[in-house]
Write a structure and sequence with these properties.
Elements: E1 2-5, H1 11-27, H2 38-41, E2 46-53, E3 56-67, E4 70-78, H3 87-101, E5 106-112, H4 118-126, E6 130-132, E7 144-150
Parallel strand pairs: 4-5
Antiparallel strand pairs: 1-2, 2-3, 3-4, 5-7, 6-7
Amino acid sequence: MQIRLDDLAGPEIRALLEAHLRNMHEISPPGSVHALDIDKLRQPDVTFWTVWEGGELLGCGALREISPKHGEVKSMRTSDAHRGRGVARAVLHRIIEEARARSYDRLSLETGSMKAFEPAQKLYESFGFMHCAAFGSYVDDPYSVFMTKSL
């Protein structure tokens, strides 16, 4: 697996992110979807990585700067065909490395509270993320789980 910075211009990443947004809207109620579209992922406060094997896109993830000492994990997605291969684990490791390189004190995230999000929650817990209150511009939402990790 190769993890690389991505400019979000390729058709493969476009398709994966469109599928991600569709899926989030299918399983989350209106107003409770916090996934970013391509334009928001291209903002200067976001660094975006893709995971490849050969010429095939396996997944993606992003790091958004909330403040000079606080980052947020965004857009974690593994293509359906490559689930269970450690793609999310690899990109999350890269995001944490970058957050440490930036001297962030804390890395946080929002994920869903429904059953479909349990594998993601378990992944984050395995990296030391703990449940926390809403952070940044988020508000409490029964469909969201907020997690944070001290770095």
